[in-house]
Write a structure and sequence with these properties.
Length: 483
């Protein structure tokens, strides 16, 4: 707790930190908090989701809000509804032992009438997505004349999503003398422009982003035919019932198709993408958080800001076009110090893209094999048998009914009876045909068979060699709204 105290945090916040069981400040908290907990300097923090940055700005912001003043003092802009809601949830939790600080999240896709009503009460901190905020400013429901702190969270993502003009508009409604704290995973020329236009001599700290986020992640890949990708995914899910993860697809349609297919096969999966209504998204996130879903199938955009910490896996059913997204995606697992697996299910043509990711992000990938159906059966049968054994025995059957069943089965041996019951069970499982899904590389190609390892027991690493074809500087951030 001493290390948090040294950052200048007061008792009410230290008490929450202690309740949450955080042991020491994260790197971004160490770097940011002393800079912004007092003074008037603008601030840039280059860090991404998963590094503890919400607390890095949330704690100092709470320390600096005056609850006795009835106007909006802090505004946090976030690119997505999910991230906005998540930030609001965290800030509320962090303020639990402080004098009443009102916190409200406003975002598109939810009733504006309800938000306008909530805004009649003075909200000390507003968390908003840009479009909805502009609506509310224009309707005079949000007033920013006395704003003291503006936080731009995931600024790079806001620009990627085409919010550049919205940001300019919002900034015009804020007073000159406010402080701006900007957080971004990357520093692009567009972000430099925002910094130049709206910030004054900012202090800047940079986290070793990729290393910080990826240190606890085991990066794996497997090569299959494009048409076998979903079947490969289900086999990985089958052999490890403890998997809980996010599966990334490229488009909304791919996301929905894969979720429909998994649901049809009785997997606990749901899609999360931009075509869903806010209510549907909330329902899906709620199911996932309550661990009623094994996997969430998501687009990159929709998955931004998902705050679920104990994910075992991230699957890439399609690799992202923008390599920096690989880091964002895999950062969904191995969060808050936990280990995780990021597994790319690729076709042979995606191998070159994987090589680029490997080189540019300095990641070593291990090749793993898609489990064979016999492994899937063997594990599922084992799990099923254990389930039967562990079921507490309560004889609730009518003795006459039991007697009748015994009589009917009388001619079967124990072996025959087990085999029949098992067959009936197995028919429900929908395990695909007994084919090897692993792509058979032509001889001498890069992924030689001796590089293959069983999933979960890799011996050797695959590392892209050759000259550096991809420079980090060349990463392009196009405007995309896929989620
Ligand atoms: P964020 O980067 O804000 O999305 O945070 C990622 C997760 O790390 C959140 O669930 C936080 O509650 C958690 N977290 C934040 N600060 C710490 C810390 N100092 N120690 C451990 N976990 C933390």
């Amino acid at each position: 707790m001493e290390s948090f105290k040294r950052l200048g945090l007061s008792k009410p916040i230290l008490k929450v930190i202690s309740e949450l069981g955080f042991e020491k400040p994260s790197q971004i908290q160490e770097l940011a908090i002393p800079q912004i907990i007092q003074g008037n300097r603008d601030f840039i923090g280059l860090a991404q989701t998963g590094t503890g940055k919400t607390a890095a700005f949330g704690w100092p912001l709470l320390e600096r809000i005056d609850p006795s003043l009835n106007h909006t003092q802090g505004l946090i802009l976030a690119p997505t509804r999910e991230l906005g809601q998540q930030i609001a949830g965290q800030i509320e939790m962090f303020s639990k032992f402080m004098d009443q600080i009102n916190v409200l999240a406003v975002y598109g896709g939810a009733s504006i009438v309800d938000q306008i009503r909530a805004l009649r009460k003075p909200q000390h901190i507003i968390i908003a997505t840009p479009g909805r905020l502009i609506d509310l400013i224009k309707r005079k429901s949000v007033k920013l004349e006395k704003l003291r702190f503006l936080i731009l969270d995931e600024a790079d993502e806001m620009l990627n999503m085409g919010f550049k003009e919205d940001l300019d508009t919002i900034l015009q409604y804020t007073p000159e003398e406010k402080q701006v704290w900007l957080f971004s995973a990357t520093m692009s020329p567009e972000i430099r422009r925002i910094v130049k236009t709206y910030m004054e001599h900012p202090a800047e700290v940079k986290l070793n982003v990729e290393k910080e986020v990826n240190a606890n992640i085991l990066h794996q890949f497997t090569v299959v035919k494009q048409s076998d990708k979903s079947e490969a995914l289900t086999r990985f899910l089958d052999v490890d019932p403890d998997i809980r993860g996010v599966v990334f697809c490229r488009t909304r349609q791919d996301t929905q198709d894969l979720a429909d297919l998994l649901l049809k096969k009785n997997y606990r999966a749901e899609a999360l993408h931009g075509d869903l209504s806010q209510k549907q998204r909330d329902r899906v996130m709620d199911l996932f958080k309550r661990k009623e879903l094994q996997v969430l199938i998501a687009t990159d955009i929709a998955a931004r800001g998902i705050d679920v910490n104990d994910l075992t896996h991230v699957f890439h059913v399609a690799l992202p076009d923008d390599l920096s997204y690989y880091t964002h995606r895999s950062g969904r697992t191995a969060r808050a110090g936990k280990k995780g697996i990021s597994l790319a299910i690729i076709n042979v043509h995606e191998k070159e893209k994987l090589n680029r990711i490997s080189r540019s992000l300095d990641i070593q990938f291990q090749q793993v094999l898609v489990p064979q159906t016999r492994e899937v059966y063997s594990l599922k049968v084992e799990n099923w048998c254990r389930g039967v054994l562990e079921k507490p025995f309560k004889n609730m059957l009518d003795p006459k009914v039991l007697e009748k069943a015994k009589m009917l089965f009388g001619n079967l041996s124990k072996e025959e009876l087990i085999a029949k019951i098992l067959m009936i069970e197995i028919e429900k499982w929908n395990v695909g045909a007994n084919v090897d899904l692993n792509f058979d590389f032509p001889k001498k190609s890069q992924g030689k068979p001796n590089n293959y390892e069983r999933h979960g027991h890799p011996k050797k690493n695959f590392r892209a060699g050759g000259k550096k074809e991809f420079s980090k500087k060349k990463k392009s951030f196009g405007k995309r709204r896929v989620g």
